[in-house]
Predict the 3D structure of the following.
Amino acid sequence: MRRRLLHVGLALAMGSTPSWAAPASPPCEAALGTWDYVAPSKPGRAVVTKLADGRHHLVWIISDAGATVAGAWEATCEGSRRTWRVLFPSDPGIAGLKVVEEFEVSGDAIRFWLLGPDGKRGPMGGARRLP
């Protein structure tokens, strides 16, 4: 009995996750939900859902200084990257455009960056999950 307790104690002390602990959500799943944009993003909201076929859908709206822009995008998600296709933009000239985003979810916060053609991150955006 002591030996078993010692093994469990050592495993926990060494940072192992016990088999009874709930696994962390994969990044793609953790990024789903309703979000309120926070600085440095402009004020707005976004809703990210997942369809049965695995595609992610995003509907967003931003209001700043009397101007409102909105859009609807769909994406495939792998790890902490989503490849978005613009479906319904405020600017009709970008319909069909593909955009790659990297994101990090930590609790009820998400940070995200659109990647440039060279793969480098653009300015960071942020949001908080709404209940």
In short: Helices lie at 2-13, 27-30.
